[in-house]
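Try it yourself: sequence plus iron/sulfur cluster, in.
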Amino acid sequence: MQCQTVLPGIECTFWGKQGCIFSEGSCQVVVENCEGCDRIVEGTIGKVCSAYPAPVKKWTGGLCNFATHVKVEIKSEETKVNPLKASKKASGGGKKK
Ligand code: SF4
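Structure, out:
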């Protein structure tokens, strides 16, 4: 339904028949880390995030995964596995029947 408080007229999954069902009944303003992000929009309470109602929570565990101005570095251990060794290992034991 459409928000009628912070971003009037904007479709929002948190707006229900009783109003905003997000915690504290409203979006929260963006935090310092959000500066420069394209998802910031101007709401009636100030700058808010168009992707998530509580920006501060997006930054508590590290970088915000929705942010457009910073890149999340994905460090995967799997890329270090030699594909040849991995396939030898996989075909090694299971074929003796
Ligand atoms: S997407 Fe993340 S960084 Fe961008 S405004 Fe929203 S919470 Fe802030």
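One thing you can check immediately is this: Residues 29-87 form one domain.
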